[in-house]
């Protein structure tokens, strides 16, 4: 069973200093060839998990099997099968792009001439040929990330681990970086395990996602699965300004989970937008309020995250805000009504 999976974890746990339970009994699989997103806010346990999978950190308990090898028993063999790109930049600014890759090749015991040719071909692949003899410290953020991608690929890994690889890049840089990763996947069938807190990125790039919060996986599946689990659409109704408040009327309609009202627009979470819209239009016209616009959206991953963790994604710190609590309560009420 484990041979067919790129990554298998079984109750993987890390407790720092006997106190901080950073990762708590997580079990999941990453299939070969897929892009797997490990999504969670700061402090969720992403880096800790990635470090255990890549033989950088010993688990307190539980097991990880990577590329068919038990990481605890064969850390050095695992390292040969994988590439790792860390959250922090690891390129040596005082070496050229080419030299950075050659040095990395040396660490894997790749002979000099082979290291040279791999470095040249990787530099070209990452479109850094023009800058190959420049010191890495002169590279832009995007170029540096591409150089690190090249370094991570020097041992021709089967699985690439990326820890928040696009943190700090502008949208263009992020898109560019992912373009290279996607191309690689297509050409080589590379498995990608990526941690991120960019929800849109996980949505667009990953075949499957696990959401981690406070060291536990709170949900997993394809982005579509996760949105399905949320079981609802978001309908925005716009009314002419100055009309009376329809919140209560809308809340009473069948299949409605929650209603948020701002100015003359209503954001309604409901079971199905398709069935809700005609009912809502009818209800509004009976109330004598004209609708000036309607949009129906499937929930975004932001909403999936809120749903499973009870918190806004970028909200740091503990506990729920009043708004979150209200949204959750409406949601729970909606589910009871179903
Ligand atoms: N070396 C360490 N010693 C003690 N606590 C740590 C250490 N590294 C991380 N932690 C704690 O473990 C939790 C998870 O951290 P981390 O895995 O870095 O999260 P993420 O990468 O999702 O931001 C956090 O509460 C963090 O403060
Ligand atoms: Mg981290």
What is this structure's SSE topology?
Layout: E1 5-16, E2 20-31, E3 35-39, H1 46-53, E4 61-66, E5 69-70, H2 75-81, E6 82-85, H3 97-107, H4 112-125, H5 141-152, E7 159-163, H6 171-188, E8 191-196, H7 199-205, E9 208-213, E10 216-221, H8 223-230, E11 233-239, H9 247-251, E12 256-262, E13 265-270, H10 273-286, E14 291-297, H11 301-309, H12 322-337
Helix pairs in contact: 3-4, 3-5, 5-6, 8-11
Bound molecules: adenosine-5'-diphosphate and magnesium ion.
Residues 16-17, 20, 22, 40, 42-48 line the site of adenosine-5'-diphosphate.
Describe the protein's architecture and organization:
The chain is an alpha/beta fold and about 350 residues long. It has two domains: about 1-220, 3-Layer(aba) Sandwich (Rossmann fold); about 230-335, Alpha-Beta Plaits. It has twelve helices and 14 strands. It has helices at about 45-55, 75-80, 95-105, 110-125, 140-150, 170-190, 200-205, 225-230, 245-250, 275-285, 300-310, 320-335; strands spanning about 5-15, 20-30, 35-40, 60-65, 70, 80-85, 160-165, 190-195, 210-215, 215-220, 235-240, 255-260, 265-270, 290-295. Strands 6-7-8-3-9-10 form a six-stranded mixed beta sheet, with helices on both faces. A four-stranded antiparallel beta sheet has the order 2-1-4-5, with helices on one face. α3 crosses α4 (about 110-125), α3 (about 95-105) packs parallel to α5 (about 140-150) and α5 (about 140-150) runs parallel beside α6. The longest helix is centred in the middle third of the chain and has 18 residues, at about 170-190. The model is unreliable at about 315-325 (pLDDT under 50). It binds adenosine-5'-diphosphate (ADP) and magnesium ion. Magnesium ion binds near residues 46, 47 and 164. Adenosine-5'-diphosphate binds near residues 17, 22, 43, 45 and 46.
């Amino acid at each position: 069973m484990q041979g067919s999976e790129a990554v298998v974890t079984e109750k993987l746990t890390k407790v720092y200093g006997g106190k901080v339970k950073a990762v708590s009994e997580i079990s999941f699989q990453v299939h070969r060839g897929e892009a797997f997103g490990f999504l969670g806010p700061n402090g969720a346990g992403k880096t800790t998990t990635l470090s255990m999978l890549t033989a950088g950190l010993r688990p307190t308990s539980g097991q990880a099997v990577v590329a068919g090898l038990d990481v605890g028993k064969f850390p050095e063999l695992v390292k040969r099968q994988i590439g790792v790109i860390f959250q922090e930049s690891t390129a040596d600014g005082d070496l050229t792009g080419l030299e950075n890759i050659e040095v990395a090749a040396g660490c894997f015991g790749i002979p000099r001439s082979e290291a040279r040719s791999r470095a040249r071909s990787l530099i070209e692949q990452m479109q850094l040929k023009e800058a190959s003899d420049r010191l890495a410290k002169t590279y832009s953020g995007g170029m540096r990330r591409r150089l690190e991608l090249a370094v991570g690929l020097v041992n021709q890994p089967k699985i690439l681990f990326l820890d928040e690889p696009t943190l700090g890049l502008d949208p263009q840089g992020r898109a560019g970086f992912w373009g290279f990763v996607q191309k690689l996947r297509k050409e080589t069938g590379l498995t990608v395990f990526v941690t991120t807190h960019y929800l849109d990125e996980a949505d667009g790039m990953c075949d499957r996602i696990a959401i981690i919060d406070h060291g536990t996986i709170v949900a997993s599946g394809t982005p579509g699965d996760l949105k399905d689990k949320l079981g609802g659409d978001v309908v925005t109704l716009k009314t002419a300004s100055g009309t009376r408040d329809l919140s209560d009327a809308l809340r009473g309609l069948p299949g409605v989970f929650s209603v948020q009202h701002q100015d003359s627009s209503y954001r309604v979470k409901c079971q199905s937008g398709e069935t809700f819209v005609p009912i809502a239009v009818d209800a509004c016209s009976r109330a004598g309020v004209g609708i000036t616009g309607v949009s129906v959206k499937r929930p975004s991953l932001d909403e999936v995250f809120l749903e499973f963790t009870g918190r806004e994604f970028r909200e740091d710190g503990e506990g729920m805000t009043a708004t979150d609590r209200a949204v959750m309560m409406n949601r729970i009420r909606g589910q009871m009504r179903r």
